[in-house]
Design goal:
Layout lengths: L1 E8 L5 H18 L3 E8 L6 E8 L2 H8 L2 H10 L8 E6 L5
Antiparallel strand pairs: 1-3, 1-4, 2-3
Length: 98
C-alpha cells in the first residue's frame, strides 16, 4: 500500500477556497478512483489555515493515476497562488493500518 501525507498552509482569508478545492478532489476520488483506498482531508480547528491530507493507494499505479488526474491538476492551479508555505509531502510505503 502506498500513501501520501500532505501538510498545507494557506494565506489568511483563503481557508474556504482551500477547503472547497480539497473537497472537490475528494468528490473526484469518490466517483472515479476505485484504487484509491482512502482519501482523508482535515482542517485544524485551532488554526483554520492549516490543512492535512492522508491518501492511501492500492499500489504505485493507483497513486500515479491519482496524481495525474485532471482533479489534482485543477487543485494545484487553485492552491498555488493561495499557499502561505511550501506543501510538505511525504510519500511512503504503509506499514500498518487498522
Amino acid at each position: 500500500m502506498k500513501s501520501i501525507s500532505a501538510v498545507i498552509r494557506v494565506k489568511p482569508g483563503q481557508e474556504e477556497t482551500m477547503r472547497s478545492a480539497l473537497l472537490e478532489v475528494a468528490a473526484h476520488v469518490r466517483a472515479s478512483e476505485p484504487d484509491t483506498v482512502g482519501f482523508f482531508v482535515s482542517q485544524d480547528p485551532a488554526d483554520p489555515a492549516l490543512f492535512t491530507t492522508y491518501e492511501r493507494f492500492a499500489d504505485e499505479a493507483a497513486m500515479a493515476r491519482h496524481n495525474a488526474s485532471p482533479a489534482v491538476a485543477r487543485f494545484f492551479a487553485i492552491a498555488k497562488p493561495i499557499l502561505a508555505a511550501e506543501v510538505v509531502l511525504v510519500t511512503a510505503d504503509e506499514l500498518f493500518a487498522k
